[in-house]
Write a structure and sequence with these properties.
The structure holds three protein chains of three kinds.
Chain A (H helix, E strand, L loop, with lengths): L2 H16 L1 H21 L6 H29 L3 H7 L4 H30 L6 H28 L8 H25 L8 H26 L3
Chain B lengths: L2 H26 L13 H28 L2 H33 L7 H21 L5 H31 L16 H57 L1
Chain C lengths: L3 H48 L10
The chains are: A mainly alpha, B mainly alpha, C mainly alpha.
């Protein structure tokens, strides 16, 4: 079995056994949405913009938690050293960790979308289907970025607090594009009309998946 | 030329250019028609922006060289560039805000340039927080290098997305795009001199901080060797006694 | 001249912050120099110790 599949299977099996990370992610997404419902007073603001914004806030927080969890398995007991001594190369390890973070984020997204429709008085119709590729692009980019960064922050004193500080500014372009495209989709626009936003998200994704793939070896080595 | 000679040369150039710049701003350039005297802030605000972005680029370049060559020199350069860049970025935002208040009536607005600079400022801050929260090991240097590279690669996308954001939904206040209609050639000349002055200032500060960090790195390495030598010497003494 | 205070504020802050940064560098330099001196002293005592080949006196003979 390839190294990528092995690491992926290990992490997923760990998670399926306890399910606590998934539960935490879904809970976090929901709570963030609840806070925003009250903070934005969803009845008074145009629902679609508020809903899209709230959805992305929930996704970003869940994404950070997911990326942290993806690397958490190796942080204790020096298991990372074991992985590095194996014939597994860092780029493959990155791919596996990125996939785990992506799966976590996708699960959180599904939950968040359902809650968003309920909380912000929207409909389960074609607009949700149009949302899917936008959210997929966002999850790809954010997981790629957060996996790389959490390898850094997990091993410095700043720790988990540092990850949002580093990730959010870098994620801003994809965030702007994602929120704008999501709001447009929910308002009924076709994907073709959001071409510019989608191009930005695609550029972001390509950039950060590539960067993560190439640079991961520099952040997992031990001294 | 050794480094202290370069430093002194840069220092004197900075002083000369800065005096020239001040003279040109306050005595030479004609005032702009609509904005009044506060518009003169522009002549420092733009060079600050150029230097802040250039310094950021240098952080990334130093990061690439560090990952490639492994020489501590590149890490020191990147750290110095991040610090000086942060100083200039902060000043640019502050100057921009002080300029905005009389011209646009508000201390802050999310126009595309200010927004992009603010994101840059946040990235600088993250880089410096990473450095501050961790020890001076080669591992942390690698972390910082990766972060610097990743952040700089992001900047063009930030610029594109913020600009798109602001053209579709323009800021509430119609922003005068920073006095770009520089009609009078004296204005252009003044701006160029100010650019030169701030570039020299940046280079001088960078050189100061960089040589300081170099010294610190060398001393750390030396301290390690002395510690080893001390331990070896006392081992030797113990063996001679026994 | 209207808005003069903004101009003054902007330029003053710029120069003040730059000045403060230079002071920051200067103070770091003083600390570095002190550390360098102590390192040099230890180097000196090390080279002195290694050049002393006379063994310690044994008092229990």
């Amino acid at each position: 079995m390839s190294g990528f599949a092995a690491v992926l299977r290990k992490d997923l099996r760990l998670e399926l056994r306890s399910g606590e990370s998934t539960l935490a992610l879904l809970a976090l997404s929901m709570l963030v949405l609840v806070v925003l419902v009250f903070a934005l007073d969803a009845a008074r603001v145009r629902s679609v913009d508020a809903a899209a914004g709230a959805l992305w806030v929930a996704m970003v927080f869940a994404g950070m938690l997911g990326a942290n969890r993806a690397l958490l398995a190796e942080r204790d007991n020096g298991a990372m050293r074991g992985l590095l001594l194996s014939p597994l190369d860092p780029a493959t390890l990155y791919a596996a960790k990125f996939a785990v973070a992506l799966i976590f984020m996708a699960v959180a997204e599904v939950g968040a979308v359902i809650l968003m429709v309920l909380f912000f008085n929207l409909e389960f119709d074609a607009s949700i289907a149009r949302l899917a590729p936008i959210l997929a692009l966002g999850a790809l980019g954010f997981s790629a970025l957060a996996t790389l960064l959490s390898a850094i922050t997990g091993r410095t004193r700043g720790g988990d607090m540092l990850l949002p500080i580093l990730a959010v500014p870098i994620f801003v372009p994809a965030l702007i594009a994602g929120v704008k495209a999501s709001a447009a989709a929910l308002a009924g626009a076709q994907l073709a009309s959001m071409g510019d936003w989608l191009k930005i998200m695609i550029a972001f994704d390509v950039l950060f998946v590539t960067a993560g793939y190439l640079l991961f070896e520099h952040v997992v080595g031990e001294d | 030329m050794n480094s202290s000679a370069i430093r002194n040369w840069l220092g004197y150039s900075t002083l000369a250019l800065m005096l020239a710049a001040l003279f040109m701003v306050f005595d030479y350039v004609p005032p702009e028609a609509e904005q009044g005297i506060a518009q003169l802030i522009f002549y420092f605000h733009v060079p600050l922006a150029w230097v802040a972005f250039a310094s950021f680029g240098l952080v990334a370049i130093a990061g690439i060289f560090y990952l490639w060559l492994g020489d501590q020199l590149w890490d020191d350069l990147g750290y110095a560039a991040a610090e000086t860049g942060m100083v200039f970025c902060t000043l640019m935002i502050v100057a921009g805000s002080i300029w905005a208040k009389p011209i646009w009536g508000t201390w802050w607005t999310w126009d595309s340039r200010l927004t992009t600079t603010f994101i840059l400022w946040l990235m600088y801050g993250g880089y410096l927080m990473l450095r501050a929260s961790a020890d001076d090991t080669p591992q942390v240097a690698r972390f910082a290098a990766v972060l610097g590279i990743v952040a700089v690669l992001d900047v063009p996308i930030v610029i594109a997305s913020v600009r798109l954001w602001r053209t579709i939904h323009p800021a509430v206040l119609v922003t005068k795009q920073g006095g770009h209609g520089l009609e009078d050639p004296r204005m252009v000349a003044t701006l160029l001199v100010c650019l030169a002055a701030f570039t020299a200032l940046w280079a001088w500060l960078l050189m100061l901080r960089f040589t300081q960090l170099r010294t610190r790195s060398r001393m750390s390495a030396l301290a390690v060797r002395i510690a080893f030598a001390t331990a070896a010497a006392s081992d030797k003494q113990v063996m001679e006694l026994g | 001249m209207e808005h003069l205070e903004y101009l003054v504020a902007a330029y003053s802050i710029i120069f003040a912050v730059i000045f403060l940064y230079v002071v920051f560098i200067w103070r770091r330099q003083a600390a570095l120099d002190a550390e360098l001196r102590s390192l040099e002293a230890r180097m000196a005592s090390l080279t002195q110790a290694s050049s002393e080949t006379v063994p310690q006196e044994r008092s229990d003979i």
